[in-house]
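Hi there. Long-time user, first ticket. I'm pasting a complex I've been working with (about 519 residues overall). I'd like to know whether the download I got is complete or cut off, because the file seemed smaller than I expected. Thanks.
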Amino acid sequence: MNVLGSRLLPIRGREAGSRLAPPVGARPALRRWLGALCGLSVAFGGALARAQVASLDLNSALFVEPSKRSGLTVLNPSATLSVMPNNWLTVKGGYEADIVSGASESLKGGRLSNVDIVSSATNFSDTRHALTGGFAITRASTYLRGSYTYGTEHDYRSNAFAVSAGSDFLQKNTQIELSYGRGFDQVCTTAYATSDPASSRLALDSSQGCFTDDKKRASREISLNNFQVGWTQTWTPVFATQVVLSAALQNGFLGNPYRSVVIASAGDQALENHPENRARGAVGVRGKYYVRSLETAFSAGARLYRDTWDIFGQTYEVDAERYMLPWLRVLVRGRYYTQTKALFWSDDYTGGEPQTGPRGQYWSGDRELSPLSSYLIGGRVLAKREGRPGERVFGLFLSVSGSVGFDLLKTNLRDFTLGGRAPDDTLAMLWSLGLRGEF
Amino acid sequence: MKHLQSSALLKFLGLSLAASILAASAGCATVRPEQRAILADPTMRFDAESADQAALEHVLDNREGSTGGGSVRGGGCGCN
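Hi, the file is complete. Here it is re-exported in full:
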């Protein structure tokens, strides 16, 4: 599913980190991960015994953003089991975790802020668990899919429902898909009253007491609505295009509950204060063309994005994929992204003369709301082995595939500083590993 | 103000015309089932075996102010 409330969570990665939360080591996480996988196997065991086809996907991604002072590491293992009890129904269950650790600055000030931003960096770790269940019904040229995802971590809970329906038209040359996602999330903050002036609100110093009766903590709602329409068209035997329109409505606490911003020249700080509503829209256009002489599939795409916070984003991407061997294919990709700043963005809110941004009702320390651009290069190698008719791979699978991917992301922050210093955590690496078996 | 309104109207009409031409020309595209060998290959699908793509989008959603407009299921042999 491409439209899921959880995909649009405003707080993730470094921003979701719970300082002082009990560190989660790799072994307990692995045990929980394996336990969830066993649970899924048991849950689906009965159906599996009768299944015509089932598939198991095991994936893991490692995101590393090194830095001398802060830095971030996210390990993202996931497992999904799909079972087809008959030829029109697929039932799916999955587990995913985000194991986040690192350090980040809890205080944001700009070029004129007279405070020590760098030493505000504190260590944190947290694990987000997400359980997903879903189904897909396929009849002739039409399909209907639905899913529910529950996510939990020390300071954030999410409930996301998603449905999508699609159909083929015009001798199956045209495919239309409509999707809708609804999210009901909760984020933990300090227990300020909504009538309190925003400048007097405090940031969280840890996730201790969140979602309990602790009077120093409060739970704020976030409502998410996501809509998407996709149109895929085949034009010739070697050329296809896709147009995707997306819209999202977000309402609630859309800031980072851990981040304070310096808002006065005397060094006064307050909890990051973002508007409570955000409407977002994007249109993506991409095409795939197979060049017979090169035996390679080329893809190019562009995406335009706009939201009511006045961010305008442009994305341009290309990739090429070809078989190096009948069972081995290689993909290389490149991407360029650029965006303008949010209307209320400023690197410095202390009342001096910052280079950009208005000051007043809202203030932010979120670098994703600042003007930036990024370059990405990467690739993936995928090997797949299919059993011959009547024969199974390793005596069990109809087919087995494995993939390894690597991407390098370099971000250029045009206006964001930490007390006047450019952050050094702008080069990120992503490794991904995937295994898939169909049986 | 009037100028702005007419400019927006022209833009809307232009976009509608372009969309209509595209939709109409889509009806002319007839790739027959036996011509779909290449289109059916995973390298020509928009969402084929994209676990690494999902991980990448997960990262980009958290490192950029934009989201949405990504790939959806589509393409392929149309042989459901």
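A couple of notes from our side: The mean pLDDT of chain B is 73. Residues 2-25+36-63 of chain B form one domain.
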